[in-house]
TrEMBL record:
This is Chemotaxis protein CheA. GO terms for biological process: chemotaxis. PANTHER family: CHEMOTAXIS PROTEIN CHEA, SENSOR HISTIDINE KINASE CHEA. Its EC number is 2.7.13.3. It is an enzyme of class 2 (transferase). It catalyses: ATP + protein L-histidine = ADP + protein N-phospho-L-histidine.
């Protein structure tokens, strides 16, 4: 397996070779048409990008040559120099030398001596006469024999990768069906073919998923300007630190969370950060600190947005929720800290007293929740009053194939995404308690409400019937789900197994029921509904006694 450094080196070389080819073309155009602004602008842009990429990769010599040539193209662009006379052969020499240096990187060879070229470039910048003779570039025997080199990098539209991944999903479904069929028939030859098909499908799946991965830095690197603009608008001083840019994630996931991340950063500055005067009064530095980081945790990617601002005032959120009529004063007083944080993600909720361009419009965290829910992810909140807040986005690496827990309910198979599955337990009725008409189970020192999934899915919007142990016979298989810091136990008929599934959209009329997040096809050919944990949690909260 290639290291991350090797991958970046290959990408640099591919892009650098493409840039060299483009520079050779544009400088030839410029020689014939010295006033061709399009060719001049493109040469300047190519040199600027090559300079930045070379320096980022540690190829300082390439970066230095590109910098000197960029400077001269800039002077030509601003009409301070003309692309004529002795400047022409020097610039052609520079482009050719750039090609030689790129090839040297590719072949792990030492760079050619460019001291004479750099001296000439410096003299061109300062307007001095060239002290070192430079011959007009003419093709040598060593050169029309030079091999033409093509880039190893192929740019693919994301929609083509999406289509390819959908085909892989169909293949995985058929793979599972063939495996099941081979087990039922018991034919050794068919079993061998099925095992080989399984390996090929796995390799193809991971190869396609790998092709879709991009570094989160492609999104993170856009935020320094965002932070600067928002801090200026809010009249605050904010320092941004970024880490984990190399962490890889599906490009589509990165696209989906773009707005969510933007809202979180804006909220961190608008809501979380104090003004310089307020920070001094609180014994802090005038400048606030905001960090954007990414890391992997098992099969998930965690993106954190942390600030050292004022933190979340839990009591203020309780009061606001009561004022908005979201909960009664009695219920609000009993909410745990995590449940209070969950209120922040309700549509239209805001604790801001004044409306500004950044905050107080009631838009932001609900958008974040919707985006993360659509991916089957989670949002975690940690905060300490006066010290700061951290939002953690828990995201899958890929959205095409998801881990799921399969279970049975009334002889039908269902699936729950593992992203929202906290644990599974089997408890006797005597280990369950009834409080306020609800079943409660003590799971790792925490009281978790428990409900029969059969009853929750019943065709009624009425309040759930108060719980009774009389209806519970024998051990109860319970799936503990976790959504928005709320845990909920779902009683099912039987656990089946854990497996990767390909989720497809539901068709009519089931698409009208938001409790189902999609469907998948099992190896037996049976259609299996995928339950939507956020929707189930909201339904329980609306119907609980």
């Amino acid at each position: 397996m290639k290291s991350r450094e090797q991958e970046y080196r290959e990408i640099f070389l591919a892009e650098a070779l493409e840039a060299y080819d483009a520079m050779s073309q544009h400088i030839s155009v410029l020689e014939k048409k010295p006033d061709d602004e399009a060719a001049l602008h493109e040469l300047f842009r190519l040199m600027h990008n090559l300079k930045a990429n070379a320096r980022a990769m540690g190829f300082a010599e390439v970066g230095e040559l590109a910098h000197r040539m960029e400077t001269i193209f800039g002077l030509i662009r601003s009409k301070e120099r003309a692309f004529s006379g002795s400047l022409v052969p020097v610039m052609f020499d520079g482009v050719d030398t750039m090609g030689s240096m790129i090839r040297a990187v590719n072949e792990n060879q030492p760079f050619p001596d460019v001291s004479t070229l750099l001296e000439n470039l410096d003299r061109l910048v300062s307007g001095e006469e060239l002290q070192v003779e430079t011959a007009v570039v003419v093709p040598s025997d060593e050169d029309a024999n030079r091999k033409l080199e093509l880039s190893d990098l192929v740019y693919i539209q994301i929609k083509k990768l999406d289509h390819l991944l959908n085909l892989v999903g169909e293949l995985i479904i058929d793979r599972d069906r063939v495996l099941t069929l081979s087990q039922e028939i018991g034919d050794p030859a068919l079993a061998n073919v099925a095992a080989h098909l399984s390996r090929l499908a796995d390799d193809l799946q991971y190869s396609v998923m790998d092709a879709r991965l991009v570094g989160v830095g492609t999104l993170f690197n856009k935020f320094p300007r965002v932070v600067r603009d928002v801090a200026t608008a809010e009249q605050k001083e904010v320092e941004l630190s970024i880490s984990g840019q190399d962490i890889q994630i599906d490009r589509n996931i990165l696209q989906i969370i773009t707005d969510a991340l933007l809202h979180l950063v804006r909220n961190a500055i608008g809501h979380g950060m104090e003004t310089p005067a307020e920070r001094r009064k609180a014994g802090k530095t005038p400048e606030g600190h905001l960090s954007l980081s990414a890391q992997t945790e098992r099969d998930d990617v965690l993106i954190r947005i942390s600030d050292d601002g004022r933190g979340i005032d839990v009591e203020a959120v309780r009061r606001k929720a009561v004022q908005r009529g979201q909960v009664s004063a009695e219920v609000a007083s009993r909410l745990s800290e995590g449940e209070v944080y969950a209120l922040l993600f309700e549509a239209g909720f805001s604790t801001a007293d004044q409306v500004t361009e950044i905050s107080g419009r009631g838009v932001g965290l609900d958008v974040v929740k919707l985006a993360i829910d659509s991916l089957g992810g989670q949002v975690r909140v940690e905060s300490r009053l006066g010290e700061g807040t951290t939002f953690t986005l828990v995201l899958p690496t890929s959205i095409a194939v998801k881990g799921a827990l399969l279970f049975e309910l009334e002889e039908h198979s269902y699936a729950l995404p593992l992203m929202h599955t906290d644990s599974v337990v089997s408890l006797w009725p005597e280990h369950l308690n009834i409080v306020g008409g609800m079943l409660l189970a003590e799971i790792q020192g925490e009281n978790v409400p428990v409900v029969s999934l059969r009853e929750l899915l019943s065709d009624t919007d009425d309040t759930l019937v108060p719980a009774s142990k009389d209806t519970l016979v024998g051990r109860q298989d319970i799936i503990i789900t976790n959504y928005n810091s709320r845990k909920l136990g779902l009683i099912v008929d039987r656990f089946l197994r854990q497996q990767d599934i390909v989720i497809k959209p539901v068709s009519q009329p089931l698409d009208m029921i938001d409790l189902f997040g999609g469907v998948t096809l099992l190896g037996s050919g049976q259609v299996c509904l995928v339950l939507d944990v956020p929707a189930l949690t909201r339904l329980f909260l609306a119907r609980r006694p």
